[in-house]
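idk why but the lab printer keeps eating my pages so im just putting this in chat instead. protein + nicotinamide-adenine-dinucleotide:
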Amino acid sequence: MYIGPQGIVHGTTITVMNAARKISKSEEDRKGKLFITAGLGGMSGAQPKAARIAGLVSVTAEINPKAVNTRHSQKWVDEVFDSLDSLIPRIKKAVTDKEAVSLAYQGNVVDLWERLVKENIKVDIGSDQTSLHNPWAGGYYPAGFSLEESNKMMAENPAQFKTEVQKTLVRHINAVNTLHAKGMYFFDYGNAFLLEVSRAGGDVFKKNSKDEFKYNSYVQDILGPMCFDYGFGPFRWVYTSASENDLRKTDEIALGVLEDMHKTAPEEIKQQLSDNIVWIRDAMKNNLVVGSQARILYADSEARVKIAEAINKAIAEGKITAPVVLGRDHHDVSGTDSPYRETSNIYDGSKFTADMAVQNFVGDAFRGATWISLHNGGGVGWGEVINGGFGLVLDGSVDADRRLKQMLFWDVNNGIARRSWARNKEALFAIKREMERTPNLKVTLPNLVDEKTLDNLF
Ligand SMILES: NC(=O)c1ccc[n+]([C@@H]2O[C@H](COP(=O)([O-])OP(=O)(O)OC[C@H]3O[C@@H](n4cnc5c(N)ncnc54)[C@H](O)[C@@H]3O)[C@@H](O)[C@H]2O)c1
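predcted complex ->
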């Protein structure tokens, strides 16, 4: 089941689009806003494509020419520059003309950041998606050295390589801080950027704090409150027929479900539904299927169940020619406990537990998943995360209809309940709404306390 590029482009589009909304509510005003980031690798390579879909001017720095060429030949990057002297005027023109364009700088990201500071260019959104979860083995390259020189140093003098990386990280955060002081919105992209800057001794903590970062992660600011707490996350399905016609059919089904839901949806989730309506409408055009015929979109519990029900019915009626396998990403509402990523917007002290992923896995198993998994590791590193996952085969049977309703309902609402107990207001809204929709569901609600009254008691 390979759905990597499509999933990453969709997730990155949701993130970048909502980051742009954080700085400006109007689509018109967002035109010509400048987004600076780094990394054109496996997952980070989706950034320029997502930024163009969001209508921004983006510049992504990438030190490895091979990675730049791959993304350029795929047309995810529009133009490539290996000289800052030619890139800077191109950025200025793109911003003035309000172009939706993705530029790549082939070079070290710190040289780009420092030049932007020197030129006094206004950057609207900043991030970084180099592989800083792996800083000493090629995840992040030091400034002042070519790729080849760095690789040699890494092999022959790892201690010097580490020192150079840490020196570069300090320069990196200094430039980011300068532009942030001039109004740039910066977010950590789940790649341990802030963590490694702090370990390098960079200026990244809030005033008078030794453990609170100045900047939030994209889950704290964007995906947590705007998606996961409302139950929206990456739901996906794969066709065992490998038929493009079946893919078209389920795109139509999903579009119909989302459009229907949009008509009566509360204001709080209308935006998520409209973003996904646009996504699924353009899905064939975006041409992101690699390997198996598969589709992904962000949906809540209601939408996941309705889409799955309709797919199962279409299989029973022969409109879809073979079984369909449902699944989802780890990067979702309920399946993953990861205090530095998926559960980083849980602030009641409980984010360092793995209860949700385990309950999710056990609940999914009892409620009808075809297979389930519970595992450690992933992008944030071993020992930092527990992931629960599932696969559910739809074969058009009455039994599959029963299982999908029971299992998908649990798979999402288990996480919303846990998020509501942490007093996340969006999750409180979502679980109350689910209890109204489903009278048999009884979830204990947290009692909200005025923090000031509590502080005064002790
Ligand atoms: N936010 C998310 O949803 C999400 C999802 C998956 C992964 N991640 C994290 O994002 C990071 C990147 O993932 P990936 O799969 O793209 O990794 P990758 O290693 O394929 O790509 C990172 C790229 O950064 C480049 N790079 C490193 N140092 C640089 C520098 N100083 N200047 C310019 N370019 C530099 C590398 O050459 C490489 O091509 C990882 O830490 C990963 O865990 C985040």
